[in-house]
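Convert to structure. Protein one:
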Amino acid sequence: MWLDALANGVKAAIEDIAFEAESRLRLQAMGLGVGQEVSVVRRSNGAGPMMLRAGATYLMVRHQDAQKIRVRKLP
């Protein structure tokens, strides 16, 4: 499933980041790498940004970027 489809509060692990190398490295520097546990804290209406929690870090991700991050729900 893609990150943009993840419901608020559900934990997931990042499986793949479908970005070019430079953008992927930038996301990894912010704490979003393959294997990282994430959850959606809140989202804007429509196609606005999403607030994520990755470990102890909170960050905002654009909706169109969240559509390129594949995740797997965690139990």
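Protein two, convert as well:
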Amino acid sequence: MNTENNKPPIFPSWTGWYALVLGNLALLVTLFYLFTSHYS
């Protein structure tokens, strides 16, 4: 198996991508909560 093809494109490991996705999800949940509480 060639490990060069298994590397993620930007981050040095897949952990960076997981952190980015989870951070994005947390940001969206927080923003939707703030919008909902402000306009309700």
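The mean pLDDT is 90. The CA atoms of residues 17 and 40 lie 34 Å apart.
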